């Protein structure tokens, strides 16, 4: 489903050129459950940002099935993110003034889905993640684990091909984190491709494939197909 060939990403900071990705080549098949691991500054978050279309590579090839993502302009990237990628972040990134249903509806508004249809899907997704009794609660009225479940429902709103999660349990206690990881396992078992960026070995151990980064390079790839 995903292919990187010689992918590079550099940043210019003053007089210094920093290489975040140094010619990365890898492929991810549909239905895989992948953990991307490595210390801070290893390039794993940069890879996730490029993978999700949040950032552009400096060089190399990135193809998502038949789409040449590395060549997209800004409008094409925005459309790609909305159609094909679901994002989950450590800080949840929910809008505090909106209810759970309204937060989940947001990606569908940008996709042009009619109000009645998007509300029905938002309710269905919140029920799916165990929040059928929290539909009209705002983020401040929910626990961290409940907020993360809203974020997962929102990430699923447009039926993405790939779910990207950046340290998804970092702000949660151990028990709640395990519940969220179990939900990820369930989604993957249903066929959703899942890629988790983490420095937590226990989180990485849940994945069937672990790709380790250091200094912008892949240093190991355990369980690749």
TrEMBL record:
GO terms for molecular function: ATP binding. Keywords: ATP-binding, Nucleotide-binding, Transport. Residues 2-225 form the ABC transporter domain. Signal peptide: none annotated. PROSITE patterns: ABC_TRANSPORTER_1, ABC_TRANSPORTER_2. It comes from the Bacteria. The keyword Transcription does not apply. InterPro entries: AAA+_ATPase, ABC_transporter-like_ATP-bd, ABC_transporter-like_CS, ABC_transpr_LolD-like, MacB-like_ATP-bd, P-loop_NTPase. This is ABC transporter ATP-binding protein.
């Amino acid at each position: 489903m995903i292919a990187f060939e010689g992918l590079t990403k550099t940043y210019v900071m003053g007089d210094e050129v920093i290489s975040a990705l140094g010619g990365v080549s890898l492929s991810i098949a549909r239905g895989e459950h992948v953990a991307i691991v490595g210390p801070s500054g290893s390039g794993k978050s940069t890879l996730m940002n490029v993978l999700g279309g949040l950032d552009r590579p400096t060089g190399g090839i990135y193809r998502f099935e038949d789409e040449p993502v590395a060549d997209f302009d800004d409008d094409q990237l925005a459309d790609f993110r909305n159609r094909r990628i679901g994002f989950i972040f450590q800080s949840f990134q929910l809008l505090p003034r909106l209810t759970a249903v309204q937060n989940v509806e947001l990606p569908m508004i940008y996709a042009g889905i009619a109000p009645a249809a998007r509300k029905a899907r938002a309710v269905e997704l919140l029920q799916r993640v165990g929040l059928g009794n929290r539909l009209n609660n705002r983020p401040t009225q929910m626990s961290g684990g409940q907020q993360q479940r809203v974020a997962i429902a929102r990430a699923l709103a447009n039926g993405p091909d790939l779910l990207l999660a950046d340290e998804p349990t970092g702000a949660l206690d151990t028990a709640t984190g395990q519940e969220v990881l179990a939900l990820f396992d369930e989604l993957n078992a249903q066929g959703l491709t899942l890629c988790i960026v983490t420095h937590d070995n226990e989180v990485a151990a849940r994945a069937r494939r672990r790709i380790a980064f250091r200094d912008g390079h892949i240093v190991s790839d355990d369980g690749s197909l």
